């Protein structure tokens, strides 16, 4: 018995040594004029000077796209230590928005999309050597790759036929083929089945998002969803017997029971807007889906990915101020956050082993540097306001707190560069007088008074065409809006195609088509769009939610929508922001607690949230809270 055990142990030691010192997988060799002839140019990009890290002792790991310092790169981390930044490895650098990693079947490579040379292309990263090869080459958008089970081909979404379609190509970019050329709708987010027989993807062919299946040759296309919901972002389980996907079917009413006078509660079944997004799992037999069941419940859950053993499901949970990676066990669907709150994640893949390649995460130069102007000592405040003479605010130019003016200027230039539209050259509102009063359509305790808020234009017509487009996003139980700008150049060098429907806020939509619902989804437009909301976020300017008060509800009062409002908080509360730019005596005189509660009629809870100092007689227990 001892002799047999010793032989087994010796065999294991030899096997580990062979694996450890086996030659690394090389990038595909150049063949003729294939796109792999550009490998040298890609790998010659600036390389990190940090010391490469050793492979993690933990076997399984996440490979994910994360934003740090305004830049999206690929990283890896042990599956049980995603919240420990010291265990992160950086996998790409200066590839401009590396997104949507897809792990090869052998676990040695990752395909992803990036804007390394001004337009979206697909690349392959060797996880042993760090070599990067470019797969696609053209101005049109290419993205969201998925591997064939033999690792010889990829399927991906592409706009090269002036419509978003599913394409297939060899891993060196040769033999591209449009698999949905005869489909009338947009097609995106492909997933290749583990047995290689099926590609499942999301399609707008029926007028809403549905899961379609086809063979790898584009034949035998069939609607797997065949319902009235939005089903999207399919992901096969490791054994191919289940399909995870994103759906809005939770709380989606058959009929809407609401009127302008009595609108339904936001997010309720009666609203009928079906704006929640959760992860569902269904059985898949190769031809149809069956037994769908909901497995996440956070409200806006996206990008499902399976654990290597198929026992757990991870996903991205969108929240108002963060976007984290969560995981849930299929046998116990209690989701828990894996990533930390100060990192924004976009997409991920779960690898059975940690990559050998990786380097210590590097810090790039900041996107901007604020240059606050100290106030005169006699003023009694910390910073001064600054005139923004380059920004038109009828009938003159605008004003901001000097603590945020440089980020605004940098954001304006970035938006112009990305979209070709100087969207922030003219605004609807900026800094308001501290003494200004409002009716119920605005806030007396507004961030505008601190010099840290702007209102964009509500519309952006250029040469007779509307350039501003909105998409509704229900996040954290509240209605938010994502602002898109139609790119000035429609050749693929600016923006990306939309996959989510915009929102129709016209009078006809709000009053006739969907009374009490605030509008309806509009048809998906063709073309390239730039996500202004995302650009604003990375520069620190964040959106706010729509109002849904009884007397000021976005569904029946357009002024309550607030898609135009962006503010830069920098971790401050409202009172702290006001103290930066106003003397204490001015604040005390203008925002007297009893006057705000009494004459102004503000709710006590809202005044507390603004952190206005209460008098001693106001809620004694409040004095127990720590104060700065």
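^ Assign residues to that structure.
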């Amino acid at each position: 018995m001892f002799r047999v055990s010793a032989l087994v142990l010796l065999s294991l030691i030899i096997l580990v040594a062979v694996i450890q010192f086996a030659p690394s997988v090389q990038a595909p060799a150049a063949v003729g004029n294939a796109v792999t002839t550009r490998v040298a140019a890609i790998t010659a990009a600036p390389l990190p000077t940090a010391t490469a890290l050793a492979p993690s002792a933990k076997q399984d790991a996440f490979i994910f796209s994360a934003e740090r310092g305004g830049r999206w790169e690929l990283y890896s981390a042990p599956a049980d230590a995603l919240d420990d930044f010291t265990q992160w490895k950086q996998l790409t650098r200066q590839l401009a928005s590396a997104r949507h990693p897809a792990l090869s079947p052998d676990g040695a490579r990752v395909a992803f999309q990036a804007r390394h040379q001004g337009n979206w292309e697909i690349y392959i990263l060797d996880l042993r050597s760090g070599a990067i090869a470019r797969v696609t080459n053209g101005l049109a958008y290419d993205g969201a790759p998925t591997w064939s089970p033999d690792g010889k081909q990829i399927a991906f979404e592409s706009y090269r036929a002036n419509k978003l379609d599913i394409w297939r190509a060899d891993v060196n970019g040769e033999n591209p083929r449009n698999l949905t050329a005869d489909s009338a709708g947009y097609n995106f987010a492909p997933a290749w089945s583990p047995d290689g027989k099926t590609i499942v993807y999301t399609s707008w062919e029926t007028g809403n998002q549905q899961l379609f299946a086809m063979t790898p040759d584009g034949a035998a296309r069939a609607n797997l969803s065949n319902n009235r919901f939005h089903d999207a972002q399919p992901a096969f389980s490791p054994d191919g017997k289940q399909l995870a996907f994103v759906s809005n079917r939770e709380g989606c009413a058959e009929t809407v029971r609401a009127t302008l006078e009595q609108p339904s509660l936001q997010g309720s079944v009666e609203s009928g807007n079906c704006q929640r997004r959760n992860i569902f799992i269904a059985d898949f037999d190769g031809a149809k889906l069956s037994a769908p069941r909901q497995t996440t419940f956070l409200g806006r859950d996206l990008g499902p990915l399976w654990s290597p053993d198929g026992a757990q499901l991870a996903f991205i949970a969108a929240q108002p101020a963060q976007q984290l990676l969560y995981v849930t066990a299929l046998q116990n669907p209690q989701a828990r956050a894996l990533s930390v709150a100060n990192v924004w994640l976009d997409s991920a893949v779960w690898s059975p082993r940690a990559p050998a390649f990786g380097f210590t995460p590097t810090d790039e130069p900041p996107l901007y540097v604020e240059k606050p102007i100290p106030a005169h000592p006699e003023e009694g405040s910390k910073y001064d306001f600054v005139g923004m003479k380059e920004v038109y605010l009828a009938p003159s130019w605008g004003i901001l707190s000097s603590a945020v003016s440089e980020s605004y200027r940098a954001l304006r230039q970035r938006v112009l560069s990305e979209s070709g539209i100087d969207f922030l050259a003219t605004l609807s509102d900026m800094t308001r007088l501290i003494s200004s009063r409002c009716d119920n359509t605005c806030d007396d305790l507004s961030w505008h008074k601190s010099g840290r808020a702007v209102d964009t234009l509500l519309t952006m017509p250029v040469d007779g065409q509307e350039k501003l487009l909105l998409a509704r996003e229900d996040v954290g139980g509240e209605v938010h809006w994502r602002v898109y700008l139609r790119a000035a150049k429609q050749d693929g060098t600016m923006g990306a195609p939309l996959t989510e429907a915009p929102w129709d806020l016209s009078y006809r939509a709000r009053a006739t088509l969907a009374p009490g619902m605030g509008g309806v989804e509009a048809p998906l437009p063709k073309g390239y769009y730039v996500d202004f909301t995302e650009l604003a976020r990375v520069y620190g300017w964040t959106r706010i939610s729509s109002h849904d008060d009884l007397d000021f509800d976005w569904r029946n009062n357009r002024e309550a929508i607030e898609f135009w409002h962006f503010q830069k908080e920098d971790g401050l509360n409202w009172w702290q922001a006001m103290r930066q730019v106003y003397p204490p005596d001015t604040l005390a005189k203008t925002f007297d607690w009893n006057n705000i509660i009494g004459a102004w009629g503000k709710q006590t809870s809202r005044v507390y949230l603004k952190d206005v100092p209460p008098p001693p007689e106001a809620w004694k227990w409040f004095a127990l809270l720590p104060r700065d």
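The CA atoms of residues 28 and 301 lie 36 Å apart.
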